[in-house]
Write a structure and sequence with these properties.
The protein is mostly helical. It is 69% helix and 0% strand. The protein contains 16 helices and no strands. Helix 3 packs antiparallel against helix 4 (135-150). The longest helix is centred in the N-terminal third of the chain and has 54 residues, at 4-57. The radius of gyration is 58 Å and the shape is elongated. The N and C termini lie far apart (197 Å).
């Protein structure tokens, strides 16, 4: 007997297998069809691209063949040191015409070869045939290169200066001119400098006056006499200061009515030595002398308080006058010497002032100046004796007497020997 339940699973299995086979074959067919379509599309795209390329490179019935791009030649023109543009500027004239100076060896291009190259390049870059923006400039450079290389003299100079830029610099110079470009106004700078120099001359004159003033104050405070190095100014200041101090003490003494204070002052003075009393008096006189010295505006010999005449601008304005007057006086002096005339008073005064110096001349009194004029101090021996006398005057009277005695003895011995 046939068992239906046993055969049922096998029929399902067979049906499932058949369905699987059909699906697999169908998928494979579908995949193969898609692949064929993709290949066809790729081939069609390649054909279209090839046709487009042919259309761009080959002439068509619609119009002429497309123009090729022209390569700019500047990067092949080389370099040359020509800052003044005497030849071809920064480019090499040979390379502009298509020749290389480094490679032709002993056979440089002839004029015929240069002309052929020039004509070929002119056809390419002539402004009437080439509408490029830089065509005109390139044509001018090509023309300049042809002019230089076809001129024997210029070509020889061009070849020589290729390796000798120093000769180019010596003959044509350098285009670079160095100059300072001030950031500030020149007139303002000059004004500031003049102001600074004028201030310097003013303070320098002030310092000169202060130097003499300090020396006069020192001599006056110490009470130096004429024989001890004191000057007439210091002696006068000392006298004025002592008179002022005496008046102050009299006023103070008259105002103080207390007898005990006077007695105490006398006792303090009795305890002090003469030296201490002298030093105390000098210290009391110092501020008075310092105030009095300010009233002296001019010590002579150029040691005066600064004024507007001491400014540099004023002095510079006077320099031509000083130079001219000095030349005139010197010319007159030489002319009188050639005529062997005696010295006049003006000449004696100028020569004496030059010998002793302006400081000593201005500081001397009228009597001392008359003595100087009579001693002919422009003679060196007389000047040395005068200088010795000036040193002796600084000594005390006793020392001066001893020196004079020694001089007399030496003079008497010398006369006996003669």
């Amino acid at each position: 007997m046939y068992n239906y339940n046993q055969r049922r699973p096998s029929l399902f299995v067979v049906a499932f297998v058949l369905l699987g086979l059909v699906n697999i074959n169908g998928y494979g067919l579908f995949a193969n069809a898609n692949a064929n379509v993709e290949e066809a599309e790729q081939q069609q795209e390649e054909v279209v691209q090839q046709q487009q390329q042919q259309n761009e490179t080959e002439p068509t019935a619609a119009g002429p063949k497309k123009k090729e791009k022209i390569e700019f030649p500047e990067h092949k023109w080389g370099t040359y040191y020509d800052p003044q543009n005497i030849f071809c500027g920064q480019y090499d004239c040979y390379k502009i015409l298509g020749f290389d100076y480094e490679t032709w060896g002993r056979s440089p291009p002839s004029k015929k070869e240069l002309t052929q190259s020039y004509r070929t390049l002119s056809k390419t870059w002539h402004p009437d045939k080439n509408k490029d923006k830089g065509a005109k400039d390139r044509f001018l450079k090509i023309n300049k290169a042809y002019e230089v290389l076809t001129d024997k003299k210029l070509r020889k100079e061009y070849d020589n200066m290729r390796e000798r830029p120093d000769e180019y610099f010596y003959k044509y110079g350098s285009p670079t001119i160095y100059h300072y470009a001030p950031k500030s106004d020149t007139l303002f700078v000059v004004f500031v400098l003049l102001l600074a120099f004028n201030g310097f001359t003013w303070f320098a004159q002030k310092q000169r006056w202060q130097q003499i003033a300090d020396r006069v104050v020192k001599d006056a405070v110490e009470g130096l006499k004429a024989g001890e190095g004191g000057s007439t100014e210091s002696l006068e200041l000392r006298k004025k200061a002592e008179a002022m101090l005496k008046e102050q003490k009299e006023k103070e003494g008259g105002s103080s009515s207390n007898g005990s204070e006077k007695a105490s002052l006398k006792k303090s003075k009795m305890k002090m030595t003469k030296k201490e009393m002298r030093e105390k008096e000098n210290e009391e006189l110092r501020p008075l002398i310092m105030e009095l010295v300010k009233e002296i505006n001019d010590f002579g010999a150029g040691f005066h308080q600064p004024t507007w005449r001491d400014l540099l601008v004023v002095r510079m304005a006077k320099w031509p006058m000083y130079v001219a007057s000095g030349l005139v006086w010197q010319t007159k002096y030489l002319f009188r010497r050639l005529r062997k005339l005696e010295l006049n008073d003006e000449e004696r005064q100028v020569l004496t002032k030059r010998a002793v110096g302006p400081v000593a001349w201005e500081a001397a009194s009228d009597a001392d100046r008359e003595e100087m004029l009579t001693r002919d101090l422009w003679v060196m021996d007389n000047l040395e004796l005068w200088l010795e006398d000036q040193e002796i005057r600084q000594f005390s009277k006793g020392q001066q007497k001893r020196i004079n005695r020694m001089r007399k003895k030496e003079g008497s011995k010398g006369s006996k020997n003669d």
